[in-house]
């Protein structure tokens, strides 16, 4: 039984950060019911194999109809959390905004997950992960100085700055509700979350320890914190920040510690070239064996398939297979309240009849909703 068992979440089907927040809550034991749309939704993968939907239920409703909205309100009335990711004002136009829901469920935690937030000049504009990260200053801080900033996976904005912050905010609001009995609106904007993630970098900048792109400790500028190509066209990642770790790196590479001292910054380009040449002389697995029992902080850069089969991950069961899809296991791990067996992601409407029965609808009522295409 998960730590959040007993809490009920309704998710108005959304994209990106919303499904990820729902997954995190479900993984910890929440009963999550997705209100999917009747019409097909543009999604990044088939919904019945989307790991972000795992362990959840789905009811498909036509929220443009009064009948569909009435069912949604019944479900929300029994929920602890409502999660939605539409542009500001859309939920209100559907009659499902905070002011519509609080009268019949004053303890509701109403989580609004968007890119730009509920206010500000860009609130009504479209955007995607790369746009939100770009506006935070984080994107310009990445990559080589002589190239445009690289396109990051949408881990940073959608999931770290969006979904994870939304889930954390929901938990905080639920704890606060225990003291007051009242719910509240949560404005979980990706731009705010990504900005929060830059706290340490901005602190270093204020202290004079972070400068322009291509001149910093964590942006790949220093030879001992970057990736290198190996002879088999694979890569290794090097993070030998501390002096002892750098010494172990040089030892593993067979380089003299005095000759390749990093004390003189003017020597850093020569060190980078030397490390590039040495790493390129052998395949990735060779270097993995060389550094396997050291603290040089050298790791192979793995593909997703390799990550799933990696011995360390296997020992920790970091990845699981649900249905036919290998995917990350629930995280973090709680010692005494581990997650239950996780069900496969549902297709839209897989639990419509079950949910409608729980809401007190009769079989003729359910049949009528389906016949009128108000439910699927």
UniProtKB/TrEMBL annotation:
InterPro entries: CoA-transferase_III (IPR050509), CoA-Trfase_fam_III (IPR003673), CoA-Trfase_III_dom3_sf (IPR044855), CoA-Trfase_III_dom_1_sf (IPR023606). Transmembrane segments: none annotated. Pfam families: CoA_transf_3. GO terms for molecular function: catalytic activity. PANTHER family: ALPHA-METHYLACYL-COA RACEMASE, SUCCINYL-COA--D-CITRAMALATE COA-TRANSFERASE. This is Unannotated protein.
């Amino acid at each position: 039984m998960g730590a959040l068992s007993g809490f009920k979440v309704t998710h108005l089907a959304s994209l990106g950060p919303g499904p990820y927040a729902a997954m995190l809550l479900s993984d910890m034991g929440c009963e999550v019911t997705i209100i999917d749309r009747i019409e097909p939704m543009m999604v990044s993968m088939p919904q019945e194999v989307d790991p972000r939907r795992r362990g959840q239920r789905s009811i498909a409703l036509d929220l443009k109809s009064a009948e569909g909205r009435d069912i949604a309100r019944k479900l929300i009335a029994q929920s602890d959390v409502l999660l939605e990711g539409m542009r500001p004002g859309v939920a209100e136009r559907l009659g499902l905004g905070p002011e519509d829901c609080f009268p019949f469920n004053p303890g509701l935690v109403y989580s609004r997950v968007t890119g730009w937030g509920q206010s500000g000049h860009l609130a009504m504009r479209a955007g995607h992960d790369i746009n939100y990260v770009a506006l935070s200053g984080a994107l310009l801080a990445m990559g080589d100085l002589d190239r445009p900033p690289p396109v990051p996976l949408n881990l940073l904005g959608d999931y770290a700055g969006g979904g994870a912050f939304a889930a954390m905010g929901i938990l905080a609001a639920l704890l606060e509700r225990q003291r007051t009995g009242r719910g509240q609106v949560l404005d979980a904007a990706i731009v705010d979350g990504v900005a929060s993630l830059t706290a340490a970098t901005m602190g270093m900048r204020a202290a004079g320890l972070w400068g322009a792109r291509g001149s910093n400790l964590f942006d790949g500028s220093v030879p001992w914190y970057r990736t290198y190509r190996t002879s088999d066209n694979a890569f290794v990642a090097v993070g030998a920040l501390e002096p002892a770790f750098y010494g172990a790196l040089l030892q593993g590479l067979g380089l003299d510690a005095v000759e390749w001292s990093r004390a003189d910054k003017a020597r850093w380009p020569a060190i980078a070239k030397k490390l590039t040449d040495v790493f390129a002389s052998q395949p990735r697995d060779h270097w993995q064996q060389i550094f396997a029992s050291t603290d040089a902080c050298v790791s192979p850069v793995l593909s997703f398939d390799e990550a799933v089969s990696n011995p360390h991950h296997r020992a920790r069961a970091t990845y699981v297979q649900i249905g036919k899809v290998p995917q990350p296991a629930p995280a973090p791990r709680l010692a005494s309240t581990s997650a239950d067996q996780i069900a496969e992601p549902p297709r839209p409407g897989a639990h419509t009849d079950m949910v409608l029965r729980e809401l007190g609808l009769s079989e003729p009522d359910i049949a009528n909703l389906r016949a009128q295409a108000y439910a699927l």
